[in-house]
Structure formats: structure tokens, C-alpha cells
């Protein structure tokens, strides 16, 4: 089978990812990374499959994700444990929780104030005032219910996860563009292909590190900017 530009040998994948053959096999099974089999039975991998292996490695090493959590990540799902381990997501999500708590505290304060006014009035007049009761009921309606708040938190978790994935993809595209603008001597390496033969190819390890560093450097700032923009809408 002829190897195309987008297919990589197992030995190349091991070199690019730093993962062992055994770990790659396990990740293929755990995360449904199919790979390709040549007519001779050799494994080949596409670039997007290598990216999945690298992402699984990053989540495990940097955030301590379990196999189940990494699988949830690839399925676009978010759990409270994943949120706790992912600091960029946690930072922005906590801001939203703080805002909800502030709104709840403000509504509670209004209710306490209305209760005091209503109690004082009833003691003085011995009868209720329809206007005060109406205001009191309006405040009660404005107070978010516990079930609604919990549901909002779940929606925010999912929304934040989707936002982070979108921003990561944008940053990855930006990083690839910036990588392509670097001088050739910084991007290209010489690889020995035979006893006396060599070839020049892109330094994939250096490129991967460049992309990961770029994303790490800009992710939190982009998440916060995205959150601020939504708050101002």
C-alpha cells in the first residue's frame, strides 16, 4: 500500500507522540482510533488520529484525566471532575457561578427588606396593603428556584466546554499559520532514511510543541474575553 502524505508509520507515530506501541494500541481501543491496515498488515495513522493520541496524552499528563473522562472529552461531554481538573475552564466557569450567586444574594436581600416592610406595616395598621403584597410577590417570582439554578449550571458547563473546544480550534489554526511563517531552518529537519540517504521534512515534534505552547499561552485570555463579550451583550 502506498503511503500518502497524510499517513504515518507506527514508528513515526511513536516518535511524534512519545507513546509506546502498547499505549498506542490501548488508546486505539479506548478511544476508537481506527488507524489503517496495509495489505501487509502494517498499521498506518492519519494526522487527525495522531492529534487524538496527543490530546489523550496531554489530558492524562497535564490534567490527570481518567480513560472515562478522556472518552467523555472526545464525545464533547463535561463532568464536574473534569471541570475541577481543567483550570482554564474552571476559572471562567467560576465567574459565571459567582454572578449567579450575586444575583441570588441580591434577590434574597430584596425579599428580606420587603418582609421587614410588610411586617412593620401590618403591625401598625392591622391590615395588609395590596401594593406591598404585589411587590413582594414580584420579588418572589424573580428569585431563581434551586432546580432552575442547577439546570443553568449544567447548561453553562456544556456551553463552556463547547466554547473551549471552539477557541482551542481557532488557536490551533492561528498557531499553524504562525508556524508556517517561521524561517525554514526553524521548521525543517533532516532525517536519515537509509545508509547514505537523507530527506528534509517538517519537524513534527517541534511543531506540536509550538502549537501546544501557543494554545496554553492564549487560552485563558481568549476564554475570559469570550465571557466578557457575552456579559456585555
From TrEMBL:
Xref: InterPro entries: DNA-bd_dom_put_sf (IPR009061), MerR-type_HTH_dom (IPR000551), MerR_fam (IPR047057)
Q: Does the keyword Transcription apply?
A: yes
Q: Does the keyword Transcription regulation apply?
A: yes
Signal peptide (UniProt feature, chain positions) = none
GO molecular function: any one? DNA-binding transcription factor activity
The protein's matches in SUPFAM superfamilies, at most eight in alphabetical order, are given as: Putative DNA-binding domain
Pfam families in UniProt: MerR_1
Q: Give the matching CDD domains.
A: HTH_MerR-SF
Q: Where is the HTH merR-type domain?
A: 7-76
- Coiled-coil positions: 90-117
* Alphabetized UniProt keyword annotations: Coiled coil, DNA-binding, Repressor, Transcription, Transcription regulation
- Provide the protein name: HTH merR-type domain-containing protein
Which species? Priestia megaterium (Bacillus megaterium)
Amino acid at each position: 500500500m502506498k503511503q500518502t502524505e497524510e499517513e504515518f508509520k507506527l514508528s513515526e507515530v511513536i516518535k511524534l507522540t512519545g507513546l509506546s506501541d502498547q499505549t498506542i494500541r490501548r488508546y486505539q481501543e479506548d478511544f476508537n482510533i481506527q488507524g489503517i491496515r496495509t495489505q501487509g498488515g502494517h498499521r498506518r495513522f492519519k494526522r487527525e488520529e495522531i492529534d487524538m493520541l496527543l490530546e489523550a496524552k496531554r489530558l492524562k499528563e497535564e490534567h490527570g484525566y481518567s480513560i472515562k473522562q478522556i472518552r467523555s472529552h472526545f464525545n464533547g461531554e463535561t463532568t464536574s471532575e473534569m471541570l475541577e481538573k481543567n483550570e482554564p475552564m474552571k476559572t471562567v466557569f467560576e465567574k459565571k457561578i459567582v454572578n449567579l450567586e450575586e444575583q441570588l444574594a441580591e434577590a434574597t436581600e430584596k425579599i428580606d427588606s420587603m418582609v421587614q416592610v410588610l411586617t412593620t406595616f401590618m403591625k401598625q395598621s392591622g391590615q395588609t396593603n395590596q401594593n406591598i403584597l404585589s411587590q413582594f410577590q414580584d420579588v418572589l417570582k424573580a428569585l431563581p428556584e434551586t432546580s432552575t439554578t442547577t439546570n443553568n449550571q449544567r447548561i453553562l458547563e456544556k456551553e463552556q466546554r463547547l466554547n473551549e473546544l471552539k477557541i482551542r480550534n481557532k488557536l490551533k489554526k492561528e498557531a499553524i499559520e504562525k508556524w508556517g511563517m517561521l524561517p525554514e531552518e526553524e521548521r525543517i529537519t533532516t532525517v536519515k532514511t537509509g545508509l547514505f540517504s537523507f530527506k528534509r521534512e517538517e519537524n513534527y515534534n517541534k511543531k506540536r510543541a509550538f502549537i501546544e505552547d501557543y494554545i496554553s499561552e492564549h487560552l485563558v485570555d481568549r476564554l475570559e474575553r469570550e465571557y466578557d463579550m457575552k456579559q456585555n451583550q
